[in-house]
Design goal:
The chain has about 290 residues and is an alpha/beta fold. It has twelve helices and eleven strands. Helix content is about 45%, strand content about 15%. β4, α4 and β5 form a beta-alpha-beta unit.
């Protein structure tokens, strides 16, 4: 059976993708850094785990041994994402990997640091000999999870950019399903897919939907750059990441992040999840 290596396996994106692959009876190898994450993933049903560091070539060589396909998910906003991808691609070529699926970002051309690093990763993959698929997801609906207590308890929906900026928010559950289909089903070689949700929503739109679902008022609040920086510093976020996110937030204020949902519809064979459905399913426990 073709072994699929998933990097970033212990993150929220990797875990959901792995769940979808296991549900399709695929043999999955997880690349992780922490022993406790390995134990959790083995309990989920992965075939094996390789412990290591994405920046260590010897660890990647071990992980890629006897692998047929790769789903490469780099940790969010990693400062060496481009170099890690280049190394992964080179080693995958050398070790006979048949397919390489790169988890990128919607509109990697925009002038935001982590988008630029993902663009460099895409460039390296296009210039390789590997059969590839590039996935370009929009901003997750699951970003609501981190502020759910403020929404639920105080009726506030705070974000560090303009509340009128629009996003084609996408459900991580849909992304995981699409990722698994691309890896398992034929016909996706040399494709680049925008993975966008079915609605272009501002934070004010999200607040209105939340008000309807909760039955009480929820207000969208745009946090200032200073407020964002103070909170990030207090949380111990590295300075480089704070600067990168500040650039991203400024871009979002000016332009939002919008994509087309047709590729997602085609991959899923159904309508992608709407924001109200996501809230009811994931944060309120209602069956949809």
């Amino acid at each position: 059976m073709n072994t699929i290596l998933v990097t970033g396996a212990s993150g929220r994106t990797g875990r959901r993708a792995i769940s979808q692959l296991i549900a399709r009876n695929q043999q999955v190898r997880a690349f992780v850094r922490r022993p406790e994450a390995a134990r959790e993933l083995l309990d989920m049903g992965v075939a094996d785990c390789v412990m290591g560091d994405l920046e260590q070539e010897s660890d990647l060589r071990r992980a890629l041994r006897d692998v047929g396909s790769v789903l490469h998910i780099c940790p969010p906003m990693h400062p060496a994402e481009d170099k890690i991808a280049e190394r992964m691609i080179r080693l995958s070529e050398a070790q006979g990997v048949e397919r390489f699926v790169l988890y990128s970002v919607l509109h990697p051309l925009v002038d935001v640091p982590h988008h630029r690093r993902k663009l460099d990763a895409e460039h390296a993959l296009l210039n390789s000999s590997l059969a590839y698929t590039i996935l370009q997801p929009c901003r997750y609906m699951q970003h609501l999870n981190a502020i759910w207590a403020q929404v639920r308890d105080h009726g506030l929906h705070p974000m560090p950019f303009d509340s009128k900026a629009r996003f084609s928010l996408v459900d991580l559950h849909d992304l995981a399903e699409a990722s698994a289909k691309v890896l398992v089903e034929p016909g996706h070689d040399y494709a680049t897919y925008q993975l966008a949700g079915p609605e272009r929503l501002s934070m004010e739109d999200c607040a209105a939907i939340l008000s309807g679902v909760l039955g009480r008022d929820v207000k969208a609040v745009a946090r200032s750059d200073d407020e964002f920086r103070r909170g990030a510093q207090a949380a111990g976020m590295p300075a480089e990441r704070i600067e990168g996110m500040a650039v991203m937030n400024a871009h979002y204020t000016a332009h939002g992040l919008s994509g087309n949902p047709n590729a997602m519809r085609w991959l899923l064979g159904r309508e992608p999840t709407h924001f109200a459905e996501f809230v009811k399913r994931e944060l309120m426990g209602e069956a949809i």
